[in-house]
Design goal:
This protein is an alpha/beta fold. The protein is built from 16 helices and 11 strands. The chain is 41% helix and 12% strand. This is FMN-dependent oxidoreductase (Nitrilotriacetate monooxygenase family).
Length: 441
């Protein structure tokens, strides 16, 4: 089983009420906070900790970031380069992943950033590829509107091609470091890439030698048809949001078939749904905690601010109890997809804006495993053994407590079942994932 810790470099986890939980730390502007969380996950032998990112405050709702700031709906997003650099120095085994956009960065910048991180961490870097989702991000980069859906994926495909060429612009044996002769590296082992395409012209070579992993692994979370094809072409880890095991099994089978059709080994690509765990010393304690997370900490307007951000649609024009009708569904393909997922999750067709908002900001985005450590381990084991997933991206209800409880209580139960490692094998993230180091292209 692959386990990934899902993080935000900011005031909340993906659960937007996490900062309000009584034991949650408010040290999100302190590097030691992130280092300690990563050390906890490393003690639990997690494959990877990776950070989500956005390049703007949620400001689509009411055309303002006011409500996001007022209610703490992810207004804080630190630069991930500094955060992961600090974590790299505080850990030695766990993989380190960051989200970087193919829409607002350049291939050279991203290739250099992750090559540097891979070297300085001893081969533990991973890149979560996103195409970015809304106009707020575009406007922070001097663009009036974000690119259309298909254009973003066309750009992303060429972006990956250019990055891979840059990562391969040095041969593995290029460095000589001969003090006597004065020869530093083999000149003919470092090449310009001279990439010229629709979106990018990149000369190269990269100023960073080929890395311990050759190429850092790729995470990707596209759920549309185009996004799933992109994952089939490029991803080593596919981040999903399937609400139930039956939906997940179908997605798993379909995606693995798509990967095979793309000429890649489907067994080498990990399908990882995002999941919440609420564990208690007794079942009653766990259930009571779940009820608190569902009903006590997320302000409705924080929910709507986040929902507006991800769908690039202003829900400020609606009341919470407005019915999700055809006009709203026609406004965004994202709303249609979300509404269908919520219908499946809730088991009913009559949805309101409140239902959509709750799905985005509380604990309804993926599977939720609740109970004692034994019960949680059994639920996770069922998903894994029945081929609904290859592991999980675990989102925290609060920090650092949610990950501390999981590592202390649940990890030993997964290890007893023989479905999770007791020790790391190897040093690099590719070692953890059982991925071969790619040959230079």
């Amino acid at each position: 089983m692959t386990l990934v810790g899902f993080m935000q470099a900011g005031n909340v986890t993906v659960y937007s009420g996490s900062w309000r939980y009584p034991s949650a730390e408010h040290s999100f502007l302190d590097l030691d906070y992130y280092a300690r969380i990563a050390q906890t996950l490393e003690r639990g032998k997690f494959d990877l900790v990776f950070f989500d990112d956005r390049l703007a405050m949620p400001s689509v709702f009411g055309n303002s970031a006011h409500e996001a700031v007022r209610y703490g709906a992810r207004p804080v997003k630190l630069d991930l380069t500094a955060v992961l650099g600090g974590i790299a120095g505080a850990t030695s085994k766990i993989g380190l992943g960051a989200t970087y956009s193919t829409t607002y960065y350049s291939p050279y910048h991203v290739a250099r950033t992750f090559a540097t991180l891979d070297h300085l961490s001893g081969g533990r870097a991973a890149w979560n590829v996103v195409t970015s989702v809304n106009d707020s991000e575009a406007q922070n980069f001097g663009v009036r509107e974000h690119l259309g859906h298909d254009e973003r994926y066309e750009r992303a495909h060429e972006f990956l091609e250019a990055v891979y060429q840059l990562w391969d612009s040095w041969s593995d044996d290029a460095l000589i470091l001969d003090r006597e002769s004065g020869e530093f590296a083999k000149a003919d082992a470092v090449r310009e890439i001279n990439h010229s395409g629709t979106w990018f012209d990149v000369r190269g070579p990269l100023t960073v030698p080929r890395t311990p992993q050759g190429r850092p692994p790729i995470l990707q979370a596209g759920s549309s048809g185009r996004g799933r094809q992109f994952a089939a072409d490029w991803a080593d880890l596919v981040f999903t949001a399937d609400p139930g095991i039956d939906v997940a099994k179908k997605h798993y089978a379909d995606q693995k078939e798509l990967i095979a059709t793309s000429g890649r080994d489907p067994e080498a690509v990990r399908m990882l749904p995002m999941a919440y765990v609420v564990v208690g010393e007794t079942e009653q304690i766990a259930t009571e905690k779940e009820e608190l997370f569902l009903n006590s900490y997320v302000h409705p307007r924080a929910s709507l601010a986040l929902l507006s951000e991800v769908l690039n649609y202003d829900f400020g024009q609606h009341d919470l109890d407005d019915v999700v009708g055809q006009e709203m569904l026609d406004a965004s393909s994202g709303i249609r997809g979300l509404a269908e997922g919520v219908r499946q999750h809730l088991g009913r067709n009559d949805l309101t804006v409140r239902d959509l908002a709750a799905h985005r900001a509380t604990l309804l985005q993926g599977p939720r495993f609740v109970g004692t450590a034994d019960q949680v381990a059994e639920q996770m084991s069922t998903w894994f053994t029945e081929r609904a997933c290859d592991g999980f991206v675990l989102a925290a209800t609060h920090l650092p407590g949610a990950f501390e409880e999981f590592v202390r209580l649940v990890v030993p139960k997964l290890q007893e079942r023989g479905i999770f490692r007791t020790e790391y094998q190897g040093r690099t993230l590719r070692d953890h994932l059982g991925l071969a180091r790619p040959v230079r292209g």
